[in-house]
Write the structure tokens for this entry.
Amino acid sequence: MNFDEEINRNKTNSLKYDFKSDKNKPDDVFPMWVADMDFKCCEEILNDMHKKIDHGVFGYSKNDETYFNAIENWYKQNHNVELKREWLITTPGIVFALATAVKTLTEENDYVLINNPVYYPFTEVVEDNKRKIVSSDLVLTNGHYEIDFEDFENKIKQYNVKAYFLCSPHNPVGRVWTKDELNKIIEICKRYNVFIVCDEVHSDFIWKGNHTCILNYTDIQNQVILCTAPTKTFNLAGLQVSNIFIPNEKVREKFQLELWNTGYSLINVMGLVACQSAYEKGQKWLNELKKYLLDNVNYVDTFLKEKLPKVKLIYPEGTYLLWLDFSGLNLSDEKIEELMIKEAKLWLDNGKMFGNSGKGFQRINIALPREKLKAALEKLVKTFKNF
């Protein structure tokens, strides 16, 4: 559990490190954008994967009862929710599942509701499937994002919204929705028969408040697709495994049919091994990781307040992706991006990627060793302190 260990990820086919030119970025920028961690995988997971490798046969494989039991126990212990095996459908990723949900729940030109600024694939999977996006933008008040429920309801009525993509915890603004907020969301969605597709991939990283799984609300279960995965929690994104829970039998059958129509059927065997191992044996590793990440969050908060106070951290209630407000510098997004890449030599995610309400912001991934984080922040100060 040495999270200070600096691991060289160059020339490992890393999307984050090795494909800068594909994203029109210079070779000398330090990447802090895509949401994977620079930490080595949990030793217990690696041991189980080595056992599978040593066995030497990688034939067609399917998840069984022990796989579900590992997920069930994790969510019962960590999120106080009861899951049922018949609800489970495995997919190679949550974005894949979101696209499948769009085709399951809507027709061409139907509207899907989101809350910008939000994880940009939400928009992509809707528009790529010839549906339309409508956003009830989050409202930033005194450094805290909130849902405008009057606007939320009006957008649903005005656009006859069929499905709502809920990001919980929210990426990139770091909100952990309260029970009162979730109650209001559910009340409105029930009233207008809007299906909730809930992405809870960051739910194991909570710094303030308490995360409530959407399936804890039993009266809305038949209107919910819950998207989960061990990939963010245990840094397993490249193994392509996610677990989707759909209590509504008819919707589940339609979702499964859409999945088969893509030609996809059986999940990556190493993803199966890693997922089960993570949920059975990864708790201690995760507990230590969360302490380290929270220290990183607080380090950034203190650092900016002391050395770059015009760049403000929207302090996260959850996730290891931080939302930085550069609007106090009175610079255009283009100028911020230019300085970030050419002067600071840092590659963050430009806030505009998350919708127009993300203008003036940058998203930074702080799941990396402290010394690398310190070096990056020093570059940030050197570049922007005179503005």
Q: What stands out?
A: The radius of gyration is 21 Å.
